[in-house]
């Protein structure tokens, strides 16, 4: 005769209590969260659109870094070489490539881009394959992109106000970095990986696109005003 779950049963003179199966084994909630988020950080993936954005912006940045690297090698072989994107006194990739700022870490800057943008493409492709990553992974990616957008901002200042020239391939890398940075930041805020007030999470849920458009627009205005006389002559 079976004993209902939770009822007492006498065994060898000792009263014992049966426990329901649902109470004796860990719940699905406990397995997923481990009691607290700190004990077992949840892993999350991204949407197909987000994954494609990372792949496309990563590919754009990789293309820019690849072309600049090839032209840099050609300049080292032949100091008289003129890169194809050197169109006029302002849009002159050659001036950028031969500057001290083009090798901040002791090697050509685009070589750093080759590794960084390739990594972004790998993340995007993994997300397309429905990969899921923990909080620390997303924050590391965000930190890398924060460094990237900060480095690009410094290069933008150097290009406009110190070197006094513009590189179109560099501009492509800037735009790609800005877009991926804001969308990864938005992702982390909306998932709760970055602390933010409710209104900011709501804003990112609806208007993430505003920030990269505004960011790129400001750079465009700076470029326009920096060489206004040249553009209007």
Number of helices: 10
Binned, the helix content reads 55-70%
Mean pLDDT: 86
Give the percentage of residues in beta strands.
under 5%
Radius of gyration: 27 Å
Side by side, the strands of the main sheet go: 1-2
The N- and C-terminal alpha carbons lie at a distance of: 100 Å
Instruction: Pick out the low-confidence regions.
Output: 11-40
SSE string, helix = H, strand = E?
EEHHHHHHHHHH
Provide a quick synopsis of the model.
This protein has ten helices and two strands.
What does this structure look like?
The protein has 233 residues and is mainly alpha-helical. The protein has a single domain (48-232), classed as de novo design (two linked rop proteins) (Up-down Bundle). It is 64% helix and 3% strand. The chain has ten helices and two strands; from the N terminus they run ββαααααααααα. It has helices spanning 21-24, 28-33, 48-77, 93-97, 109-128, 135-163, 168-190, 198-207, 210-226, 228-232; strands spanning 8-11, 14-17. The radius of gyration is 27 Å and the shape is globular. The termini are far apart. The relative contact order is 0.11.
Keywords:
single chain, 233 residues, mainly alpha, de novo design (two linked rop proteins), globular
Please describe the topology of this protein.
Elements: E1 8-11, E2 14-17, H1 21-24, H2 28-33, H3 48-77, H4 93-97, H5 109-128, H6 135-163, H7 168-190, H8 198-207, H9 210-226, H10 228-232
Antiparallel strand pairs: 1-2
Helix pairs in contact: 3-5, 3-7, 6-7, 7-8, 7-9
């Amino acid at each position: 005769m079976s004993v209902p779950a939770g009822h007492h049963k006498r065994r060898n003179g000792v009263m014992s209590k049966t426990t329901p199966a649902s109470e004796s084994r860990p719940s699905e909630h406990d397995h997923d969260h481990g009691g607290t988020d700190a004990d077992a950080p949840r892993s999350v993936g991204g949407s197909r659109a987000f994954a494609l954005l990372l792949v496309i912006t990563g590919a754009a940045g990789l293309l820019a870094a690849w072309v600049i690297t090839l032209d840099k090698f050609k300049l080292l072989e032949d100091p008289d070489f003129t890169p194809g994107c050197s169109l006029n006194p302002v849009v002159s990739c050659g001036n950028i490539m031969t500057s001290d700022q083009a090798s901040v870490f002791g090697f050509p800057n685009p070589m750093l881009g080759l590794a960084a943008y390739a990594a972004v493409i790998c993340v995007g492709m993994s997300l397309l394959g429905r990969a899921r990553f923990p909080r620390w992974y997303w924050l590391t990616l965000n930190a890398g992109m924060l460094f990237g957008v900060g480095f690009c901002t410094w290069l933008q200042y150097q290009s406009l106000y110190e070197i006094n020239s513009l590189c179109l391939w560099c501009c492509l890398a800037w735009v790609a970095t800005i877009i991926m940075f804001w969308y990864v930041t938005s992702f982390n805020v909306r998932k709760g990986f970055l602390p933010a007030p409710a209104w900011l999470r709501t804003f990112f849920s609806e208007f993430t696109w505003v920030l990269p458009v505004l960011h790129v627009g400001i750079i465009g205005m700076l470029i326009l005003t920096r060489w206004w006389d040249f553009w209007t002559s």
